Amino acid sequence: MIKPRAVRQLPECPSCRFYCDNPFLSCEVLPDGPEQNICIYYAPEIGAIYNGKVIKQPLQNRTIEEKLALLDSHPLFTGACPNCNYKFSSQELLVEDFLCPACGWSDE
């Protein structure tokens, strides 16, 4: 009889996107489990943890073309306003909602 391998699990493992629910493999990313009492790869179904806060995943209601257009034009990826080409400073790029001080463009 094959016995499941002893795997180190955390209480949050079953709510992680990478949890396999497999007695022989607990996690797709860390098959033997995390080495410490935290897992830097923990990704709950509701979002991800960043600096101790849960960041909820946005609804995926955009097409592939719309997503690619965002990568090509959004200030988070380009550093510039898509409307007037205003160059955001590195501090301005840390905000959640973008508002261009030059032309008033907003990503809301």
Q: Can you put this structure into words, describing what you see?
A:
There is one protein chain. This protein has helices at 64-73, 75-78; strands at 19-22, 25-27, 47-50, 53-56. The protein is an alpha+beta fold and 108 residues long. The strands form two sheets. It has a two-stranded antiparallel ribbon. The protein has a two-stranded antiparallel ribbon with strand order 3-4. The chain is elongated. The N and C termini lie far apart (57 Å).
Topology (elements, then pairings):
Layout lengths: L18 E4 L2 E3 L19 E4 L2 E4 L7 H10 L1 H4 L30
Antiparallel strand pairs: 1-2, 3-4
What distinguishing features does this structure have?
two-stranded antiparallel ribbon, 2 helices, two-stranded antiparallel sheet, elongated, 108 residues, alpha+beta
* Structural class by secondary-structure content: alpha+beta
Most strands sheet: 2 strands, antiparallel
Secondary structure tally: strands? 4
Strand order, sheet with most strands: 1-2
Mean pLDDT: 80
What percent of the residues sit in helical stretches (DSSP H or I)? Answer: 10-25%
Strand residue percentage: 5-15%
Series of secondary-structure elements, N-terminal to C-terminal: EEEEHH
Query: How many angstroms separate the termini?
Result: 57 Å
Measured on Cα atoms, how large is the radius of gyration? 20 Å
Poorly predicted runs of 5 or more residues = none
Global outline: elongated
- The helix count comes to 2
